[in-house]
Amino acid sequence: MDILEFRQRVYANPEDPGQEVLDAAAENSTLQKILDETRHLDARIQGLVSSIVVPEGLKEKLLGIPDAEAFESEAVPNLVDMPAANSSFFHYYAIAASLLLVIGVTFTLSFSSGPNANEIAMGDGVVRHLYSEAPEMAMVNAARIQAIPTAVNWEDVDTALTGVGLQLANSVGQRSAVFYANPCIIFPEYSSAHLMLEGSQGAVNVFVIQNTPVRSEFQINDERFDGTVVPIEKGNLILLGEDGENLDRFKDLISDNMEWVI
Amino acid sequence: MSEEPVLHGNTKQQRYESLVAALYQDVYRYAFWLCKNQALAEDLVQETFLRAWRSLESLQNDKAAKAWLFTILRRENARLYERYRPDLVDIEDQAIAEKGDQEPDAQMDRELLHNAINRLEADYRDPLLLQVVGGFSGKEIADILELNNNTVMTRLFRARSKLKQEFGLDADDLAE
Fold this sequence. Notes:
The complex is a heterodimer. By secondary structure, chain A is α+β, with helices and mostly antiparallel strands.
């Protein structure tokens, strides 16, 4: 067995490389050293991972899942029929937790430096919603490329934003054409509005959702869109543009010109 | 791995409780490596065990419980988080225990190792952690990652090659 084959077999599985490898190591100190070093490396990795602190109370929360499920199926049977994203554990766990006095989730989340699962799920919902409006986006993008003036009346912008209690200064329309403005339903329990503005890479989607503001701004993206979720006074401002769009400009444009009317 | 069955008891509830007791720490630690964030990892583990509870009847072979859970975990991670790349900090320092009895050199060694593993591409890091941390066999890793066994073996070889190269081990005779 040459050293390359020996190394391949040891590196692929140092704990169980096969008797042939072990025999070779026993006869050659250099090979034995390679085997020992590799096993030592694995032991160090195991030590590192075992030093990850498992949060206190996690086991109890996991053990409480069957009760939460039982509660859910008895108390909120209609949730079973909801789409996957809405029937997520986090929705009804929150309900069950209030009765079961399972505390600690909020406490744990306070340590987070990034978005929590609910916040990420919200971003996920917005992206999904945007894909459902792909035809509208395609129309806006086509009009933009062909320089067809299809900007909406500002009254439509006002109407779209009324549902979320927001008003946007019409000077925004002078700095970026608004091609689309409608109230929309992203999450049935929250009012939302959707605008499409003219960006450098295509339509820039501006969503306002009247839900709990996220704890801090975070980025979202997928293979097509770049986005950002920005907490605002009474909800969240979500901007999604085509890859490479400068969203900061639109964030400032909206943030600096909006006013709560409710 | 294929070791002792971890599920005990006759009722679904008992089997679930034994599953939690036996594996929740391993599952959390692996989730933490995937998420690099304590709160996300905890949510991910809860989602994983929720799905495990719902489909516990589908687990035919108790010996495969760990691989089954890790597969659920990876799918949930992909569904919930992988699509996004929020600006998470590197693995939170406070989540790695600092053992008071350790020498400063040992602490530094762990940090170096931790950073080196994080620098590995996910293609290499994933099978390595599944093998070292999860204790899975090559075939089990292949099943979890939906790869063939040879690919897994190659990636394991490369993962350790890169780590050893980084730490100056076998520097005189690197295989790649």
